[in-house]
Amino acid sequence: MSTEKCFAKGSAAPGPVPNGYIRLYSMRFCPFAQRTRLVLSAKGIKHDTININLKDKPDWFLERNPLGLVPTLETPAGEVIYESPITCDYLDEVYPEKKLLPSSPFGKAQQKMMLELFSKITPYFYKIPMGRKNGQDVSELEAELKEKLSKLNEDLVNKKTKYFGGDSITMIDYMMWPWFERLEVFELKHCLDSTPELKKWTERMLDDAAVKATMHSVDNYKAFYKTYVEGKPNYDYGL
Q1: What pLDDT was estimated at residue 13?
Q2: Which of 113, 142, 174, 237 has a 20 to 30 A CA-CA distance from 182?
């Protein structure tokens, strides 16, 4: 995990990407960037990490990615790749050792369809805590989230596998994991009470080396999200 402080507007641009490495532009607490960090770690890819202040982005970063989003990858040849699923697919293709995506076109399509479904779930992890903070009744949103999580549970039951792509971790597990890692932070852990297989999946994921290498403590997450919600995100919290 990178312990580098974030680069903000006015900071000097980093030097060229070293040969034999790939560069990740990231933010330490971003779940989308964590997807890419998980893949880099799982595949043992040599990389350096530049953390970006997402509230006050350096101009040189916006030249690389006009959307100003993390994760963004940069190669020694100056090629730039962004959007978390795209960066992860790229890494799996360019570094073929320990493939995370299935080899069959249908297997790949299944994982992408599942990811598409999961993208409809992630907004709940933000809507519910924000609604709660604003004094809204979030019981209906929680019921919807529980229903969506029960479908993921059903998927594991039907497949009779330990993970979503089989009995070992594949890309889809890493793509979904960052939001489950934050369940306790968002005070949503109880939403797994009726999903025993999904709960077992989260426990198995916690034993994974890449997950261990990229995670923060609940206290660190909570402290960061407090600064985020207050509108003054401390991207360097804990350094």
Answers
A1: 95
A2: 113
